[in-house]
Design goal:
This protein has 5 helices and 2 strands, in the order H-H-H-H-E-E-H. By secondary structure, it is mostly helical. The protein has one domain: Four Helix Bundle (Hemerythrin (Met), subunit A). It has a two-stranded antiparallel ribbon. It comes from Chryseobacterium aquaticum. This is MAGE domain-containing protein. Pfam families: DUF1569 (PF07606). InterPro entries: DinB/YfiT-like (IPR034660), DUF1569 (IPR011463).
């Protein structure tokens, strides 16, 4: 798995994003390319702009930590057409260039902060995660959706 904290790997994600155009169509799923970019930004918003999102309640967090966490932060790739959590659904169209710019900015910021900034950092849904778990979550999600759009 790529390392989102490594400059070369982060640049690889940025290059893949830069290969997208406004009318790139997904190979599966229902999202448009602008919705996918906005969707990918949500993981980073929960880290850098947590006030934008409602935190899960006690019961939801228990379920997430005990039944979902291992699938999200583990090494195994997401299967095609995996269900999307409600807080990650993007229903309206978004500005392609703005979402692309935001996602690239989040990738750059994460890489520049490095793994030390994430080791033991509290996740919105899963409690404290190691830098490896953060990396897996970011990398798997980006790979899944960039592959969905053929880049």
């Amino acid at each position: 798995m790529e390392n989102v904290f490594d400059a070369k790997d982060a640049q690889n994600y940025i290059n893949r994003i830069n290969n997208l155009v406004e009318d790139t169509h997904g190979l599966w799923g229902r999202m448009t390319v602008d919705q996918m970019l906005a969707h990918c930004c949500i993981t980073y918003e929960m880290v850098y702009e947590p006030e934008k999102h409602k935190k899960p309640g006690v019961i939801a967090k228990f379920i997430l930590k005990n039944f979902v966490k291992s699938k999200v932060v583990g090494e195994k790739a997401y299967p095609r057409d995996s269900p999307t959590a409600p807080q990650f659904l993007i229903k309206e169209r978004r500005d392609f260039d703005e979402e692309k710019k935001r996602l690239i900015g989040y990738i750059q910021k994460t890489q520049q902060l490095g793994p030390a900034a994430f080791d033991g950092k509290e996740s919105f849904s899963f409690g404290k995660l190691s830098s490896r778990e953060w990396n897996n979550m970011f990398a798997k999600h980006l790979n899944h959706h960039l592959s969905q759009f053929g880049v």
